[in-house]
Amino acid sequence: MALTVVLIGCERYESLQVQPAGSLRTHYLLDFESHRDPGTLHTMDGWLVVFNPASRPANLDLTVYFEDREPERFRLEARPGATTAWRASDWPVRVSGRFALRAEASEPVIAQATLGWNNSGGVHEPDAAARSPRGIREAASSYLSIPAPADRWILADGIVLLDPAATWYRESEWTIILNPNDEPADLDLAVFYSPFTRHHAATVPPRRLKTIRMDDLVIANHHYGLRVASDRPVAVQSRRNVYWPDSPELMTFWSVPLASFSALPATSPAP
């Protein structure tokens, strides 16, 4: 179903009248990460960024999903007529490693996640220092939210690059899957190469995030398409990291939600 957005209001504040009703109130953001290595100073942090065009504050009921424990919940408030950003390490819940977020908003809003990596221990001032022989570095990626889970997800541009004779860099990929349901989700990951297709099974426990390292599943140095089919509605995203060939240090990275469609009746996860 198509989403229509009508903007009504003055220069400062706008009212989003969205069709179908309820759109832009539920947001899934799958690829968050937070860590700091005291040895290398490699640091990753995530930001939740919300634009609220209305003239009144928007309450955000947030659920954080983890790979290894039950979700945690808290509430934030997005200022009216403005963008508000919250760093994940400052949230009122403890986050580390990889995690995902579901936001339920009292007003239609636009939700985005931004990830930032650096090798300076999270220090951004001009006098920051790094322990890398390549000097100080920073990389970032940003993506918009997924509006709803589905049972079919498609990625067109999949590739793992590991060929020192052909490239001076290497690339790794992960498929990130959130199961917000109260039952396990059984998945079929179909990897489409030019002449053939391979299938891989996976299960995501209820109310959990699962990260699958595609380097372990696919044929390196060959483009592939990916279809993720699930027996329950899930949300799926892809992350690609680009590294120096001889180092775990990032050169750059990006993260994108897969394209979705559904053959199952729409359902809502338990609150």
Report on the structure:
The protein is mainly β and 271 residues long. The protein has 2 domains: 1-148, Sandwich (Hypothetical Protein Tm1070, Chain: A); 150-264, TM1070-like (Hypothetical Protein Tm1070, Chain: A). It is built from no helices and 18 strands. It has strands at 4-9, 14-19, 26-36, 43-52, 58-66, 72-78, 82-87, 97-105, 110-118, 138-144, 150-158, 170-179, 185-192, 197-204, 208-213, 224-243, 250-257, 259-261. The strands form 3 sheets. Strands 3, 4, 5, 6, 7, 8, 9 and 10 form an 8-stranded antiparallel beta sheet that branches. Strand 3 (26-36) and strand 4 form a beta hairpin. It is globular and about 60 Å long. The model has no long low-confidence stretch (mean pLDDT 91).
**C-alpha Rg (nearest Å):** 20 Å
Q: Name the structural class.
A: mainly beta
User: Gap between N and C termini, in Å?
Assistant: 24 Å
| CATH topology assignment of the largest domain | Hypothetical Protein Tm1070, Chain: A
Strand count, sense and barrel status of the largest sheet are:
8 strands, antiparallel
CATH superfamily of the largest domain: TM1070-like
In percent terms, what proportion of residues is strand? over 45%
Write a brief caption for the model.
With 271 residues, this protein is mainly beta. It has strands at 4-9, 14-19, 26-36, 43-52, 58-66, 72-78, 82-87, 97-105, 110-118, 138-144, 150-158, 170-179, 185-192, 197-204, 208-213, 224-243, 250-257, 259-261.
